[in-house]
Write a structure and sequence with these properties.
Radius of gyration: 35 Å
Number of strands: 23
CATH topology of one domain: Beta-lactamase
Helix content: 25-40%
Largest sheet: 7 strands, mixed
Number of helices: 23
CATH class of one domain: Alpha Beta
Structural class: alpha+beta
């Protein structure tokens, strides 16, 4: 009995000791397992985290390549800009920091928070750009309060500097911070949040050449994130530079020729396709897009009825008006329907079925041949010719000259215009083409749409008698050491095999438009160089108020296309003045000023240095000048 009691009394402690031993062994096993996991499996990761507690990588943005004009003048370069960066790892209270930056720097809190969110998913020690283009005063404040703003750092990034302000803004384009959707694109895989990328124009289309390769510094910091030393450093590689075909002096004169009018002009080398000037008016300030554009400025751009943000030279699609008569006339000559002696009696209108189509000259032009029809822009002549040709035949010749599709100038979102056919209407509207619809097409109205770059190319092709060149904007690419990486030669799109006599007949008519009495383009005349061209006026909408006036947005567009010199063409120009009303009165003078600037730049025309040295058209041909003015006031 006593033995059994002894066993019970002494067996209990043994069981307890055994249980504790098992528990201790299990805990020890778990500890060893954890140590094995940390020391073996996670050693590299923990070592990396340990290093990054004191080592930081600071990206160094590469300066973009410069953009120069054809003569080597710098149009776009770089200047330093300061940005506010945040190291998430060093920020204890994100909301408090965002509030402080918003309050002290007068920045929008939602915008700061959006930039923070944009950087999520990256390493916590990697800086996130939350504000770019800060002012000197903001920079000084941040430097003075560094210790109170834990995790805040200042980064210097090169941003675009525009030597000539708004010059060629639509052509050059602008930069902006890379978006999240862009960072998902393959070509931007190596870019960092906060980097600037081209958003439009040359900057966008040539981004890969201009951007360069970013560098970086690995620095050592103390527990409070303060810089101690640079461990390693990789220098950034400057982007390649571009030499454009643009002449910046001619570009400036082209833009100034518009004054406050809205429109576009393209100046092209007839024998190479090089673009010498590329203007869309009014312009905008591209530097505002790399900084902080005020809401007021953005609103003014959006509400301006002249649409300053639109690249009209590339994307503007307008009825070509009577400039299209060049195509109709060439089609008639090539098809053998007319020759230079074919005449038509213009009584001020032409009737087809129950429809009456009026000439711009209500009294009529009388009996006119091809040269006179072009010179005075007789609609009735081309109504009748268009009716005989038919819409499909007109379309064939229009498309031969590159109308109706993009020319491949090398900028994003180039528009192609519209050249209608019977099949096109059937497909789009499910309706057949009527004979009467061809007449407006013959004079560049109806469904016909063209762009300024197409019109410049069209008249250049007439001038060189049949060679369509690919419009060219970049002459060469240059590396940071100044060596030529690539040179671009003229590229021929097509050669239009037409009879030389057809081109001569058209060119004689275009010469008369500008240089003979009753010609509609007299205000483009240069007395030192022979200019040939064609005016045009395209209807926007037929709407007048009770006084017979037309609100600005409903006024007709004014156009002019031309080339010079007549006997040995060098340069072609296409001009459109939005809501300018008359080609002869609004577009022709602008074209004349542009062509004068071109020949002054070459030293062919002497620049007037005194008022009395300027040539007065009325002094040279007073009667012709008066007649032209009468014609201009009522043209088309």
């Amino acid at each position: 009995m006593k033995d059994q009691q002894y066993i019970r009394e002494n067996g209990e402690p043994k069981r307890r000791i055994f249980g504790l031993s098992i528990t201790a062994a299990a805990m020890f096993f778990l500890l060893l397992t954890r140590l094995w996991y940390l020391q073996i499996l996670e050693s590299e990761n923990l070592l990396d985290q340990s290093e990054n507690n004191r080592l930081r990588f600071v990206p160094v943005a590469a300066p973009r390549g410069a953009i120069l004009d054809r003569n080597g003048k710098v149009i776009v370069s770089n200047s330093p800009s300061f940005s506010v960066a945040v190291i998430p790892q060093d920020v204890k209270d994100k909301d408090a920091l965002i509030d402080s930056l918003s309050r002290y720097l007068n920045l929008d809190r939602a915008e700061l928070l959006g930039k923070w969110q944009k950087g999520k998913g990256r390493a916590k020690y990697y800086p996130i750009i939350v504000a770019s283009g800060i002012t000197r005063d903001q920079l000084e404040f941040l430097e003075e309060n560094r210790l109170r703003l834990a995790g805040v750092d200042i980064e210097m990034k090169p941003v675009r500097e525009y030597a000539n302000g708004m010059l060629a803004a639509h052509l050059l384009g602008y930069l902006g911070e890379i978006s999240e959707s862009e960072m998902d694109i393959e070509q931007f895989r190596e870019y960092n949040a906060g980097d600037y990328v081209g958003k439009s124009g040359i900057e966008r289309s040539w981004e890969m050449e201009l951007h360069g390769a970013d560098g970086g510094r690995q620095i050592e910091v103390d527990a409070r994130g303060r810089f101690l030393r640079t461990v390693t450093e990789t220098n950034p590689t400057i982007g390649n530079s571009l030499v454009l075909t643009i002449d910046s002096d001619l570009q400036k004169q082209t833009e100034q020729a518009f004054g406050d009018k809205a429109g576009a002009a393209v100046v092209m080398d007839v024998n190479s396709g090089e673009i010498l000037a590329f203007s869309s008016n009014p312009g905008f300030d591209p530097s505002l897009f790399t900084g902080r554009m005020s809401p007021e400025q953005w609103k003014s751009y959006l509400e301006d009825k002249r649409h300053p943000l639109e690249n009209k030279a590339l994307k503007g699609q307008y009825p070509p008006g009577s400039t299209f008569k060049v195509i109709t006339a060439l089609a008639g000559l090539e098809e053998g329907l007319i020759d230079e002696n074919t005449t038509v009696d213009c009584g001020g209108s032409y009737k087809v079925g129950n429809n009456t189509f009026k000439c711009w000259n209500k009294k009529g032009h009388g009996r006119v041949n091809l040269k006179q029809a072009l010179k005075e822009s007789c609609d009735v002549y081309f109504y009748q010719l268009g009716e005989r040709l038919g819409v499909d035949k007109i379309a064939v010749y229009a498309k031969k000259f590159g109308l109706g599709e993009p020319l491949g100038i090398g900028l994003d979102n180039e528009k192609g215009g519209m050249i209608p056919t019977a099949a096109w209407k059937e497909k789009k509207y499910g309706k057949k083409w009527y004979r009467g619809e061809t007449l407006p097409v013959a004079i560049g109205q109806g469904y016909v749409l063209t762009t300024p770059i197409q019109l410049a190319s069209m008249i250049a092709t007439v001038a060189n008698e049949g060679t369509i060149y690919r419009p060219q904007l970049v002459k060469r690419i240059i590396d940071p050491d100044g060596k030529v990486v690539k040179e671009f030669k003229p590229r021929v799109i097509a050669r239009i095999g037409m009879k030389p006599a057809s081109y001569r007949a058209i060119k004689d008519g275009l010469l008369a438009v500008v240089n003979e009495s009753r010609g509609t383009g007299g205000m483009a005349r240069l007395y030192e160089v022979k200019v040939a061209g064609k005016t045009g006026t395209s209807q926007v909408v037929k709407l007048r108020d009770n006084q017979g006036n037309v609100p600005y947005q409903f006024r007709d567009h004014a156009l002019f296309v031309g080339f010079a010199p007549y006997d040995k063409p060098e340069v072609a120009v296409g001009v459109i003045v939005e809501h300018g009303e008359h080609g002869g009165g609004a577009a022709a003078p602008i074209a004349g000023r542009i062509l004068r600037a071109y020949f002054e730049g070459k030293g062919i025309i002497r620049k007037p240095v005194k008022k009395e040295d300027a040539v007065d058209a009325a002094e040279v041909a007073p009667e012709a000048g008066k007649e032209e003015q009468k014609t201009v006031n009522s043209e088309e």
